[in-house]
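Worked problem 6 (solution included).
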Amino acid sequence: MWYSKSASKYFVYTNLLQKQLFNLVFHFICVMFYFVKMPSWIQRMFPKMLWKINTTEKRIYLTFDDGPHPDHTVFVLDELKKVNAKATFFCIGKNVLQYPAIYKRIIEEGHAVGNHTFNHLNGKKTNDALYLNDIFEASKYIDSQLFRPPYGRISAFQTKLLINKTNPYKIVMWTVLSGDFDQTITKERCLENVLFKADNGSIIVFHDSEKAAFKMRFVLPRVIQQFHEKGYFFEKIDDLSYIK
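Solution. The predicted structure is:
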């Protein structure tokens, strides 16, 4: 009995230590640098989150975070319209409140929307109650069960609450980060990030924000053109029945 209790405590302690070590390593990875293409081992660690659409067809899923913006979201919509491309816009609640006409245009032109909190909060740095209330506040203006955490930062507890609620959210992450927000890379490198890393079913992140505008405006038309010429379709993420 003594050995059994000691062994049990040892395994509990070891398991806790492993989890803490993993969280520390993952935090270091997220803060110090980012993966352009999300490694499969990270995707397997968080199977409840959507990282990629499972398809063998030539379909790409463009997503845009942080809008709507009076100039940059309009630019994105105009570019998408040229080839009848559809996309998913993860909107910040306060921006929807400020620019309702642009949000309405996103919907009217057949795109999908998702919740990106009301104030663009970092889940790892925000009290759970405050974070969840901020998502709820955004939901008053954004009619969607898709959710993407700002910065990709969300705790396990926050995730559990969102996916287990009566009307659950689907947490949408990404396959490829364009890096349009990254001030240390060139616009050409940003373009290469997408062209060389995206493939069938990839969920690609751009930002329709002031910070990312310079690179996004250079990259997006070229991405649309090159993938369109290769026979790809640009789809939105909205039908939760095919999202496992």
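Discussion: The first helix runs from residue 2 to 32.
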